Amino acid sequence: MIKKILLLVMIGNCIVMLSGCWSSKEITELMIVTGMGIDRDSDTGEYKVTVQIINPGEIASQTKTERLEVTTYQTTGESIYEVMRRFSTKVPRRMYLAHIQLVIFGEELAKEGIGKTLDFISRNHEFRTDFFILVSKNGKAEEVLNVLTPTEASPSVSLYSSINVSEKIWAPTKGVHLDELLNTLVSEGKHPVLTGVEVRGDKERGDTVSSLEQIKPAAVTKITGFAAFRNDKLVGWLTENESKGYNYIINNIKSTVGSIPCEDSGIIALDVKKIKTDLKTNVKSGKPSITIKTNIEADLGEIQCDMDLSKTSVIKQIEEDAAKQVQSLMEHSITKAKEDLKSDIFGFGETIHRQHPKAWKKLKGNWDETFQDLEISFDMNYEIRRIGTISNSFQKVIK
């Protein structure tokens, strides 16, 4: 019932917006698009666009019918603009794009470059800029949009909500909006990343109602590591830990969980509450360097080992080990960007440009090469604020 209410609110907002617009259309004349997938047709070389459309009649209905609450349509064309007009041969109403939640690029198209497709999206006045842009890992965008979800009527809305929630509590996630992507593409000294999504399970059965009737759906969509770009072309993927390290570096972590191993067995789980990362650059004799200064505050969330938390030395050791673990995450992310991706996705060059504009004029011409040899140091500070409602670990109490 809640999911129906949420989608009805979205439809209601659409009606309000349309009523105040000079080119207003009756809601009955429109089809509300919540998701768009863009692939390259392997046979014709044309763009293949998949749109996910909600069915207002089914959302508002008080009685359950056999019809789904969302429908996907697909067609091809030489340009995205042409494709959107060609949809009129398949759908009975004009498509309305202002409530799109996601635009997903297929992996193969992303490797070719997404710049040409972004022209249509940024030029079209119906698109807002608050939707997320994703890349389908190991597959096509259409496959992601075709997977039905058990918790939301619209798979696009489900993915959008998942990114929003995960970004707040789980560090490897970051939602990227259109304006952020465009700003990064035109900036000096920084290449973009986009959220990755992949289909897990049986893709062929993921779009069937029977999949939702099982306790374990045949297929699900999962937010995965970041898609890393050089300019507008996909050059590789970050793992979950590399994505977490990336977010630590760019100061994009609101809350997360840190884990460090015990000396014997088990782990210590830390509830990271506050993170602040600053980048300090220096250019000496034409050679740039950067210091990553990170301050972290956390609470103890779980301890699976025998420790006496009443001792200051024990807490101090946990803090030191946790700081090393975070630094290791950042180092692995940087190594991946330098050696494999050869792409400054962190914006180190952009920071040098801002802090040393004169020096940047000499560095920017060969920055992609200079980045690979950039000297990077770390200044870590980790503080445990609270240990919870018991002073010692439960393992120690039960012995």
Summarize the structure.
With 399 residues, the protein is of the alpha/beta class. The protein contains 15 helices and 13 strands.
Describe the structure.
- 36% of the residues lie in helices and 30% in strands.
- Helix 10 packs across helix 11.
- The strands form 2 sheets. Strands 1, 2, 3, 4, 5, 6, 7, 8 and 9 form a 9-stranded mixed sheet that branches. Strands 10-11-12-13 form a 4-stranded mixed sheet, sandwiched between helices.
- The chain has 2 domains: 236 residues, no CATH class; 155 residues, Nutrient germinant receptor protein C, domain 3 (GMP Synthetase, Chain A, domain 3).
- Strand 8 and strand 9 form a beta hairpin.
- By secondary structure, it is an alpha/beta fold.
- The chain contains 15 helices and 13 strands.
